[in-house]
Design a protein that fits this description.
This protein is an alpha+beta fold and 331 residues long. The chain is built from twelve helices and twelve strands. Strand 8 and strand 9 form a beta hairpin.
Length: 331
């Protein structure tokens, strides 16, 4: 039979892996448990009987002092965090839970009078991770702002959607004027474009198309419609169900206006090409006809079907012989 028996409850302080200490009513550290030596580079004897605040980062001392003052003035417990220095001078971010003990249960603390039990949790890694995440988000947000893109992040399970301030400003709105819900996003899409926009999303989420990109119109606060190109990527869970979709808006209204102007100009030039009484033709790099107008066909005695795809040089020589023949016959 195993002869091991757990330590008595009174020894929990000594055997616990949690960072624990005892403070007196003057803020002195009466005792540290061995977990401090195991966790950090500390010697308990160097810290015990020293002020708690002596080990706190200078920038955190004021807030820590205020918390201890509340505790010493009669509050039963306090919770706070600070940066705590070890014997080597390195700081660790600790979260403290300190509770008052009306009467010491242990004889060795009787001289200390009223005592306080403190439990500390090392949150240095958590804080570092949070800072890295904040830095990453800040860099991403700056990159988005610099690229003039509007960001959206859609939770497909709850239909909540994050619309970045830049996304909202593209439509002329302040950040607080548009709620973060998919319905608020959809209401800005032009009615004639909604079916195509939503169909593109469904096709992508069903994996019928490899990537999502859709061009449509959205309504600006001033009542005019702006052209945007939306691009996004989704994340699927272990059951192959999409649960998140993140994308961007890019305003391409100016590009669309230029394209429309070019189309209108091309249509005008095409109309002029067809009706002018000057014979006009267009050839490719090899000299083959790609377009001729009716006047050109009349001048050279061909139909457009006969000319398109043919080289212009033989046509020119043949037309020259025809012209000379007509001149000879008419004398």
């Amino acid at each position: 039979m195993n002869s091991y028996s757990p330590p008595p409850p009174s020894n929990f302080f000594l055997f616990s892996s949690a960072l624990m200490c005892v403070l007196d009513a003057e803020g002195l550290i009466v005792q540290l448990n061995p977990a401090w030596e195991n966790k950090f580079n500390v010697v308990r004897g160097d810290i015990e009987q020293s002020p708690f605040l002596a080990w706190v980062h200078p920038d955190d001392q004021a807030s820590s002092r205020d918390q201890l003052a509340q505790l010493f003035s009669g509050q039963s417990s306090v919770s706070f965090s600070n940066r705590w220095r070890d014997c080597a001078g390195d700081y660790h971010r600790l979260n403290w839970e300190i509770s008052a003990v009306p009467k010491s249960p242990q004889p060795r603390f009787e001289k200390a009078g009223r005592i306080f039990y403190a439990v500390a949790t090392d949150i240095s890694t958590q804080k570092h991770t949070e800072q890295v995440l904040r830095d990453t988000e800040e860099r991403f947000e700056l990159a988005i702002q610099g690229s003039n893109h509007g960001l959206w992040d859609w939770n497909l399970k709850t239909n909540e959607i994050y619309l970045s301030p830049r996304w909202k400003s593209m439509l002329g709105y302040q950040d607080h004027e548009i709620d973060n819900h998919i319905d608020d996003w959809c209401r800005f899409v032009h009615p004639d474009d909604f079916t195509q926009m939503w169909g593109d999303i469904e096709a992508y989420l069903d994996k019928r198309i490899p990537r999502y990109e859709s061009i449509y119109r959205v309504c600006h606060k001033d009542g005019n419609y702006r052209w945007v190109v939306a691009r996004a990527a989704a994340v699927w869970d272990e059951n192959d169900q999409p649960y998140r979709m993140v994308g961007t808006y890019v305003d391409i209204t100016e590009r669309k206006q230029i394209e429309q102007a070019l189309q209108e100009r091309e249509a005008l030039l095409s109309a002029i090409f067809d009706v002018t009484k000057i014979g006009l033709c267009v050839t490719d790099e090899e000299g083959r006809f790609v377009r001729v107008n009716s006047t050109y066909c009349e001048l050279y005695g061909y139909t457009a079907k006969e000319l398109l795809g043919q080289h212009s040089r033989p046509v020119g020589r043949r037309s020259y012989r025809r012209t000379r023949g007509r001149m000879a016959r008419t004398g």
